[in-house]
Write a structure and sequence with these properties.
By secondary structure, the chain is α/β, with parallel strands linked by helices. The protein has 15 helices and 21 strands. The termini are far apart.
Length: 464
């Protein structure tokens, strides 16, 4: 937006320019936290649950912000502050969303929207890895995937961006439709459908319909990328879109898989990629990412330099040959099952390492929440977990169908105290739960822990 005039910015937002800034150019990006204010920023004062962000407009201007977008009363109140653009709108969030759509239209860019019950973040990360060597690509950061975060990501995109990869999250009906209306994607990727947010939506069919709002939001001629084995999406297909399926029996499928090399059938074309990950769910998500890349004119090739977002399955080697799998950002029955399968495979590849699982509550699962947790005990049993630590009252029911060693604690703080004392040299440790459980405390505790010397390693100079 740097090349836009202040008048253009206000007009694009459907807002009123109360006072222009001391410059004729526009901002570089938008922010909603006044502590991030500085040159080139447009501070948007949103009304939150605990505070009215517009009240911080003077502080944002004092910190050097290009200007503020806030309610009329806060814009007027900021007149006596340090000079900067004062833009007034009755609904600052809606104005920011309109501004984001206008900037998206001004860019010569292709937009890919990514959603799914599980795997949307890793698929977004895979798309960035595939596209970055070929196109100037911007992908959503962290959890910038909501009605607030998504427009912020669009507004942060530089003018030379060629592809925008936008993650789209939802907790209820209508939210994906809102995000699609702001982003106007040419390509929509639905990675998976599963029992997530059942507390609000009530059924997996309703979840599928909510995710399919992305398909409905595509313009005629766009591309929908969907799982080949998902019948719940069949009623939502559109004849005026190209629909590409991925997975076994799909248009894009895995032909051969080796340790660091995969061969993909990409809608009739063989593609060989070098990968650094072996997880089955990531290789499946790679198919969706490859299909979406093809839809924007990029043929995947060479090495896929994947960098996973924090808390999404990163592997960290710790002292004592311990491997930490940090997957604590979120959890549901589908992602838990995939994580336990990965734990088993990782332990096997480590030549008999002990698989240890720290599993916390899965939230928002509705009336069957305890059933889903009990079934997880069977999954842990199948995965060969040798030591299970459950965290939270729901997770405690996992032990009802698990025959191995179990330790149950009430919260993450208790788990952070217990887990380091249970870990042995060579263990592979999976840590996973819904975000609200806060199991990053356990990851931090393990990373800071210094175990007793590993008897498998002979000190230099010692006798054999």
């Amino acid at each position: 937006m740097r090349t836009w005039t202040p008048e253009q910015v206000a007009r694009a937002a459907g807002a009123r320019l109360v006072s222009p800034p001391p410059t004729s150019t526009g901002p570089e990006r938008a922010i909603i936290d006044s502590r991030e204010a500085g040159p080139g920023t447009l501070f948007v004062g949103l009304v939150g649950e605990r505070a009215d962000g517009g009240a911080f407009a003077p502080q944002a201007l004092a910190a050097g912000a290009w200007g503020v977008l806030t309610t009329p009363e806060h814009a007027e109140a900021a007149r006596c502050a340090v000079p900067g653009a004062l833009i007034a709108a009755e609904n600052p969030l809606a104005a920011m969303q309109r501004l984001a759509t206008a900037w998206r239209r001004a860019l010569d860019v292709k937009v890919i929207g990514v959603t799914g019950s599980t795997g949307k973040t890793s698929t977004k990360d895979l798309l960035l890895a595939i596209l970055a060597p070929h196109r100037r690509t911007v992908a959503s950061r962290a959890n910038f995937n909501t009605e607030i975060g998504l427009p912020l990501e669009i507004l942060a995109a530089p003018a030379d961006t060629q592809v925008l990869v936008l993650e789209m999250a939802m907790r209820g009906a209508g939210q994906i439709a809102e995000l699609a209306a702001v982003a106007e994607p040419e390509v929509g990727v639905i990675v998976s459908i599963g029992p997530v947010h059942l507390e609000l939506l009530g059924s997996v069919d309703a979840i599928a319909a909510a995710k399919a709002e992305l398909i409905a939001g595509l313009k005629p001629g766009g591309t929908a990328v969907i799982p080949a084995d998902e019948p719940l999406l069949e009623p939502h297909r559109r004849a005026d879109l190209e629909t590409v399926t991925f997975g076994a029996g799909g248009d894009v499928r895995l032909l051969r898989s080796a340790e660091e090399r995969v061969e993909i059938d990409l809608a009739g074309r063989s593609v060989v990629l070098e990968v650094s990950f072996t997880q089955a769910h990531l290789r499946r998500n790679l198919l969706a990412a490859a299909a979406a890349a093809r839809a924007v004119g990029v043929l995947p090739e060479g090495r896929v330099a994947l960098e996973l977002s924090p808390g999404r399955g990163q592997r960290t080697p710790l002292p004592g040959r311990v491997t930490l799998i940090d997957d604590c950002y979120n959890a549901n029955p589908m992602s838990m099952r995939a994580a336990l399968e990965d734990l088993a495979e990782t332990a096997t590849r480590a030549q008999g390492a002990r698989p240890v699982a720290v599993l916390g509550d899965m939230l928002e699962l509705g009336p069957r929440e305890r059933d889903y947790h009990r079934e997880l005990g069977e999954e842990a049993e199948r995965a060969g977990v040798q030591e299970l630590i459950t965290v939270g009252p729901l997770a405690a029911t996992i032990a009802e169908r698990f025959d191995g060693t179990v330790h149950s604690v009430h919260d993450a703080a208790a788990a952070a105290d217990l887990v380091p004392r249970l870990i042995r040299p060579g263990d592979v440790v999976l840590i996973k739960a819904s975000r609200g459980v806060g199991l990053e405390l356990v990851c931090h505790a393990l990373s800071a822990h210094r175990p007793a010397p590993d008897p498998a390693i002979t000190p230099a100079g010692a006798g054999a």
